[in-house]
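Slide 14.
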Amino acid sequence: MIFYYCPDAFHFPSGGTRQLYRHVDILNAHGIDAAVLHDKPGFRLTWFRNDTQTEYIPETTATPEDIVVLPEGFAHGLPNIFPGLRKVIFNQNCFYTFTNYPLGYTGIFHYESAMAVLTASAEGARYLAYAFPRARIYSTCYGIDPALFHYDPIAQRHQIALMPRKNAEDVKQVLGMLRARGHECPVVPIHDASFEDAARVLRESSIFLSFGHPEGFGLPPLEAMACGCTVTGYHGVGGKEFFHEPYAFPIEFGDIVAYVQTVERILLGDLTIDPLVAAAFVRDTYPPEREAALLLEAWAGILAL
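Slide 15: predicted structure.
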């Protein structure tokens, strides 16, 4: 059995926790026994629709043949977490790799002693391979569901969507400067929304402002591109693989004036993205089928170790 550990504290909407469920669904659909492992019996994530297989720590009897997949934030305690089980680290944001280690730490980083390391972006693979050259790293990717994230010209309206959770001060500065300069375009923050509601807002929005930084990948701007939004803002480094012209307009992190100038040019029609082209790029590059194929390839390699 493969257990993907998802602490109950991670109950809020987040693409990273949903991806744990997504991996389990893909593995089970292809005959590989897997479950999301939660702390408290009966708990599951409810902000998106799912019937994902779940198990609970108090009720689970694991064996040494089982594997537990841990988020990158738990790698520092690898030997003491679920002792006796084989462990895989699923690192979705490489920039959190050293967060839980104190400055001047001289102990062991456990990436090279883990059974394997899963990553979800080209930048994540590059980062981890350089930091831990002897680690067994397997690359996966994200898949965008075209049933939820697609361009709908009838639904789309003149409004700006954004997610204010990350770099909130930058959000305030950009919106404040736009307001000070006389721009009154409606703004719809996406916060604590269900997966389906977030997708609906993106389909209804003509512009998406990205504030995530640093990001191991950064799903929201990619989902916005799939919905035909004109996307600008921060690629978070991990999003460089998709967040570029002619599909989006990246801004250097922290350059508020350049950010506002770009939004103004979009509002005035001086900068445009063909929504059909952007949506097609996402559909062709990040389909769920590719996500499943890479995940199965990765686990075939891990299970053969």
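Speaker note: The chain has a mean pLDDT of 97.
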